[in-house]
From TrEMBL:
<feature type="region of interest" description="Disordered">
    <location>
        <begin position="161"/>
        <end position="180"/>
    </location>
</feature>
<protein>
    <submittedName>
        <fullName>VanZ family protein</fullName>
    </submittedName>
</protein>
<feature type="transmembrane region" description="Helical">
    <location>
        <begin position="87"/>
        <end position="106"/>
    </location>
</feature>
<feature type="transmembrane region" description="Helical">
    <location>
        <begin position="118"/>
        <end position="140"/>
    </location>
</feature>
<keyword id="KW-1133">Transmembrane helix</keyword>
<dbReference type="InterPro" id="IPR053150">
    <property type="entry name" value="Teicoplanin_resist-assoc"/>
</dbReference>
<keyword id="KW-0472">Membrane</keyword>
<feature type="transmembrane region" description="Helical">
    <location>
        <begin position="58"/>
        <end position="75"/>
    </location>
</feature>
<dbReference type="InterPro" id="IPR006976">
    <property type="entry name" value="VanZ-like"/>
</dbReference>
<keyword id="KW-0812">Transmembrane</keyword>
<feature type="domain" description="VanZ-like">
    <location>
        <begin position="13"/>
        <end position="131"/>
    </location>
</feature>
<dbReference type="Pfam" id="PF04892">
    <property type="entry name" value="VanZ"/>
</dbReference>
Amino acid sequence: MIRVRATGGLLLVAHLALVAWFTLRPLDVPWVSAANLRPFAGIRADLAMGPEAAARAIGKGLLLLAPLGVLLPMAGGRLAVSPLLSLLRTVAAGALLSLGIELLQTGVPGQVVDVDSLLLNTVGVALAHLAVVPAARAVLRRRSEALSRAAALRRRQAAQAAEESTQGLTPTIPRVGIAP
């Protein structure tokens, strides 16, 4: 379990570094559109461009922070947790990270604040969490329980062997029937 947490933490840091580079680097563009502060206005504009362009733009928004839906619970390393509480905690963390990115973009040349990015990023985190985390936790719980049962059995066998070797076998008295 410690390896899962360490791997999750390492992958989380790597993903956040990639996201920071991708979203917070200055872009050399001839002009910049205005900030979008109306929910779903950008999504409607993407849908008006046609199905292929809309799928690309919306997919990009959904996939940017989606790995956080898996990496945040993985870095937390809890197996026995309420699925709803885990989802809420992960989605809230994803939304706050997305909000932080959008706020930092206000000072980056060529980057524009878009409230639809915040919404799509948050939905992407939620979908990834729902698709992977409950099943992965169930598999890890079963494996952990099987390992703990095997360890308990080995401890019992070792204790029994140690008891038999130090004291010998416990003598048994044959049962004798009582006369009438």
